[in-house]
Amino acid sequence: MRASLIQINVDPAEPVAERRDRAAALVREQAGSDLVVLPELWHVGAFAFESFAVEAEPLDGPTARVMSSAALDAGVWLHAGSIVERGAGGDLFNTSLVFSPGGELVRTYRKIHRFGFDKGEAVLMAAGTEPVTVALPGAVAGLATCYDLRFPELFRALVDAGAQMFVVPAGWPERRRAHWSLLARARAVENQAYVLACGTAGTHAGVEQAGHSVVVDPWGDVVGEAGAGEEVLAVDLDLARVARVRDEFPALKDRVLGVPGIPVINGL
């Protein structure tokens, strides 16, 4: 599988509509890849809290329409990062969108762990409740978003649902970049799965972004890593490596504690 992670620059001076069109153009440039990934809340900025309600949209809103068209034109599976979704009841969610090469919205994931403690996303957005997987060609992918990376029990639930790789869009700050790299490798090692972690570049709402999108293999080795600026990180994944690592070092078989009581939506 060839995967392309688009580490797009989020500049508050760039209108959202223009960045949406620019992101779509970048997706179309990845024709030939199997999977393309965009970061968390790239259209508005993960820390631009005052814009969340203004830029919120339904699942069939402008971002979904533009990304659907881009996936269809490029002929790729597209994890379009996440949007500020306005739910039917008016609540806001941090929601990831996954499109098929035919442009169909096949899966959504509402971020379970909201960042901010008693402010920001944690109070402005409602929490998702269900781990989500999606069946891609050759692998089942578990979906997580940014702050989720700090909660290993979610990833265990995704492994129990058959995940062999994790796709993690993020808007991770530069001041905690060391955690970003460490946690991506930890989730890969402990679950013997690929981690595709795609962040944003630039500075918005006064928060410098970490960039450094990274792909880690099931043994914990870094397959590829971006720099700090806008960049497309393209890597080739050996999906058979997941089974080999799990067979040669079958640590998952020695698990004693499970994750009871967490519902899981299986992939298509």
UniProtKB/TrEMBL annotation:
<dbReference type="GO" id="GO:0016787">
    <property type="term" value="F:hydrolase activity"/>
</dbReference>
<feature type="domain" description="CN hydrolase">
    <location>
        <begin position="1"/>
        <end position="239"/>
    </location>
</feature>
<dbReference type="Pfam" id="PF00795">
    <property type="entry name" value="CN_hydrolase"/>
</dbReference>
<comment type="similarity">
    <text>Belongs to the carbon-nitrogen hydrolase superfamily. NIT1/NIT2 family.</text>
</comment>
<dbReference type="InterPro" id="IPR036526">
    <property type="entry name" value="C-N_Hydrolase_sf"/>
</dbReference>
<keyword id="KW-0378">Hydrolase</keyword>
<protein>
    <submittedName>
        <fullName>Carbon-nitrogen family hydrolase</fullName>
    </submittedName>
</protein>
<dbReference type="InterPro" id="IPR001110">
    <property type="entry name" value="UPF0012_CS"/>
</dbReference>
<dbReference type="InterPro" id="IPR003010">
    <property type="entry name" value="C-N_Hydrolase"/>
</dbReference>
